[in-house]
Amino acid sequence: MKIATFKRGVHPKDSKLTAYNTIKDVLPNLTCVLKYPLQQHIGAPCKPLVVVGDRVLKGQKIAEGQGFVTTSIHSSVSGEVTKISEIINATGDISKAIFIQNDNLEETVPNFGDKRDYLSLSRDEILAIVKDSGIVGLGGAGFPTHVKLNPPKDKTITNIIINGAECEPYLTTDHRVMLENTDRLIESIKLLMHLFPNAKCSLGIEINKLDAIRKIESLSSDIENFEVVGLIPKYPQGAEKQLILAITDKEVPSGSLPHDIGCLVINVDTILAVQNAVCNNVPLIERILTLTGDCIVNPGNYRVRIGSSAKNIVESIGGLKEEPFKVIAGGPMMGKAIHELQVPLSKTTSSFIFLTEKSGKLPTERNCIRCGKCVDFCPAGLLPVELNRIVLDNNLNEFVQSDGVDCIECGSCSYICPSKRHLAQSIRAFRRTALSKKLRKER
Fold it and tell me: Which residue from 46, 265, 293, 439 has the fewest beta carbons nearer than 10 Å?
């Protein structure tokens, strides 16, 4: 087995408290109102297909994407639409959401769960199913999967890279999926290679998950042009550009996309969602997430319906030991602190982490000591200390000229800084301003 890694990066304490907790199902309770934000992906928000008072079925499309880089949303329960109004979602953004009162009847749309053979479908039919099923990248980015699987005609995919690194501290869902759903994962890999028959496929897994590596290797020996690549545990090993560099030794140039160098990167859980949609006729209505932290009674990995609130989920598994000081949606390095537990689970939420003040309070920011550690460890090869200065000077043009938009927002600079400067936080906010301004100009 090949062992690989990328340049620079950091080694935070992994805190994989739930690595050996098998996946359990959490069902919405009878009184639960589920909220479906219309913005659960990169791209334009969805347009509602329902109105207040409508009765919907489990698996029914309730909002449709507008344009190419967008996707649809489906109800994860049967019930009644009670409201369509604005909420603050798990990313901290304001978004309109559809509220559905669960009726606990679990009535589904016709043909829900019907089996299909992907070999009997054309490439265009498979891509249409993926688009219609509302699948996005479940690693956290939320890029519509049908777009990723349909690169421009002048781009030839030579390397498929499946991301099983799961380098964020606390998160363990990909690890459990690879162990518990190995047969489906193998089928998903074959489906993906069917779409790109001339590409080499690599599954990258950090070598601290040897049980998953060994099991997948033993079951995939008959797949031609496929390999499992062991990755040295390091953060952010699972970032797209860093994973490409580790596995293929190719570097994605500034301003370019992976398909420009013949690569396609997709998360383990995402390809399982593709397989479920194509082969089982089930749209993306649930996801597996890690519920963890030192405040929670029963940390573990849970399969949960999209739209369920953090409050409802945690109450369903035994509640909290104490009031959390901070709750993070996503991993501690790249996730966002949420303002309340009524925030709904969206397609891109990989975890809810419930932390005490001891675990969750940020250290006091001190003056920079010019040590250069943020530069030495930045996986994107940037100068975080200079970008932070530019942000504090509010100089957007200099920020762009200094390649600030190439930041991958991984948080390595803030983690390694001995003065605990809020480098990543400031750069992230300014980067998004720069990207928003660029997008407005392009329009």
Answer: 439
Distance CA 202, CA 163 (A): 9
Cβ atoms within 10 Å of 122's Cβ, excluding its own: 8
From the list 335, 288, 337, the residue with the least C-alpha distance to 313 is 288
**Alpha carbons 18 and 94: distance in angstroms, whole number:** 31
- Distance, in Å, from the CA atom of 283 to the CA atom of 406, rounded to the nearest integer, reads 33
Between 440 and 127, the more confident residue is 127
Mean pLDDT of the chain: 93
The yes-or-no verdict on residue 439 having pLDDT over 50 is no
How many Cα neighbours within 13 Å face the side chain of 20?
3
CA distance 64 to 69: 12
Please name the amino acid found at residue 322.
E
Dihedral (CA of 141, 142, 146, 152) sign:
negative
Distance CA 385, CA 37 (A): 36
pLDDT above 80 for 140: no
- In the chain, the domains with their CATH numbers are 2-17+113-280 (3.40.50.11540), 373-436 (no CATH)
For residue 236, cis peptide bond before it (omega within 30 degrees of 0): yes
How does residue 437 score in pLDDT terms, banded at 50, 70 and 90?
A: low
Question: What are 85's strand-pairing partners?
Answer: 97
User: Is the pLDDT at 317 greater than 50, yes or no?
Assistant: yes
Task: Taking residues 235-254, report their average pLDDT.
Answer: 94
